[in-house]
Amino acid sequence: MQRTISLKIPCEESLKKTMQIYNRAVQDCIDIGWEMKTFNKNELHENSYRLLRKAYPSLQSSLVQCARDQASDILKRSGFEKRKPVKRLNGSIRYNARTYTPKLKDGIISVSTIEGRKKFRVDVPNHFKKYTKGIVKGMVLVQRNGFFLVKLVVELEDKQFKYKKVRTLGIDCGINKIAVCSDNTFYASKHLKGRKGEFFYLREKLQQRGTRSAKRLLRKISGRENRFVADVNHQISKAIVNSRYNTFVFEKLSVRKNRKFGRKFNKKLGSWSFRKLQTFVEYKAKEIGKQITFVNPAYTSQTCSVCATTQKSFRHGNFFSCSKCGLNLDADLNASRNIAMLGNALLGRASVNSPDVSCDDVAGAKAQLQQSIVTSHLTC
Ligand SMILES: [Zn+2]
Questions:
Q1: So where are the chain's domains?
Q2: For residue 359, how far is its CA from the centre of ligand 1 (angstroms)?
Q3: How do residues 298-348 score in pLDDT, each as one tens digit?
Q4: What is the pTM of this model?
Q5: 320 CA distance to ligand 1 centroid (A)?
Q6: Cα 345 to middle of ligand 1, angstroms
Q7: Are 347 and 245 in contact (CB under 8 A)?
Q8: Strand 291-295 and strand 247-251: pairing?
Q9: Distance between Cα 243 and ligand 1 center (Å)
Q10: Ligand 1 center to residue 178 CA distance, Å?
């Protein structure tokens, strides 16, 4: 698994200058590639290296190569459509192995600049210390308000699933409750809805105004909103992963998009970033040797988690009530229990067959779900 360590270094003049010259070189290289309609590194190298060395004599040869590689990737991403990409003067520098040396144990990192190699002292925050054992694979330097940020990509060994007994937790994601777990834990979203509503209202107002300062504020607000969503997702995922369960089952998001949210609601608030929540759970779980799996969400909200009868009419808004066995339950809780059982059944089969055995067709998914519920009750 890969992790990123972000470390602060002071805003030094040599770094600032390096960044500007480097980004000019990247832009020149983009211009050349754009004209030739190529992102091929060899072609770019042949046509730009000498020119760039001449134009920016203080930029050492390996940094010119970094600039070329970054330009190549930017050109590739652009697809040569619409407008030519622009590299900002204070945009990031992507270093290659020859242009930096991380010595995290000594708290030192040395970086190529236009004034030669420079050493910087870095403080590794506690939450990053567990990653320092890994192999550093790459480095990006970005400028922030009043300081620079070194982002190191670290490759760590994958942890194996370490539990003898599988304890499964099914998690149903929805907008009224962000996550409902099969162990009766609810993560509500009432105040989150309010906050999202505020952000929406502000965004709408600023978009209407359309002035430059409004646009600036818009960017600021979208950053604030993203951080707010990420923060909530971090808290929920942490609680889920640190629970007594070791296997977490989610619905595959691609199969059911926005099932539970009305059109009006989608338009107004946008959906919660459940994919982020799942990603957070996934990486937190993998760090401590727990596992995560995904199941087909079809029928999980229409099927009784006790008697396995499927009927659309069993669900009344937030409530689930089965007329066959008399189960009365919160609809999302019922769904999360189905998800857990489905995950359990699939994992059982996965160990002997291929790892992804969930059904993608709707009829198959229904049969699979009902079978999982029956088997689960038989073994209990
Ligand atoms: Zn029932």
A1: 1-157, 168-379
A2: 23
A3: 889 899 999 999 999 998 888 999 999 999 999 999 999 999 999 988 887
A4: 0.72
A5: 10
A6: 19
A7: no
A8: parallel
A9: 28
A10: 25
Q: From the CA of 166, how far away is ligand 1's center (Å)?
A: 26
Residue listed under structure tokens 């978009």:
207
Least confident of 160-169, 301-310, 360-369: 360-369
Distance 189 CA to ligand 1 centre (A): 28
* Interval 249-278: pLDDT, tens: 999 876 444 445 555 555 444 556 788 889
> Which of 94 and 357 is assigned the larger pLDDT?
94
Q: Helices 41-55 and 61-78, interaxial angle, to 10°?
A: 130
Long-range CB pairs of 302-305 (<8 Å, 24+ gap) are 303/338, 303/366, 303/369, 303/370, 303/373, 304/334, 304/373, 305/329, 305/334, 305/337, 305/338, 305/341, 305/373
Look-up: residue for tokens 């409902």?
180
Residue 335 Cα to ligand 1 midpoint, Å, equals 13
- How many angstroms does the Cα of residue 256 sit away from the middle of ligand 1? 23
Which of 167, 158, 160, 350 shows the shortest CA–CA distance to 241? 167
How remote is the CA of residue 136 from the centroid of ligand 1, in Å?
54
* Ligand 1: centre distance to CA 246 (Å): 28
How many angstroms separate the CA atoms of 16 and 11, rounded?
7
Name the token pair of 118: 């420079």
**How many A from CA of 333 to the centre of ligand 1?**
14
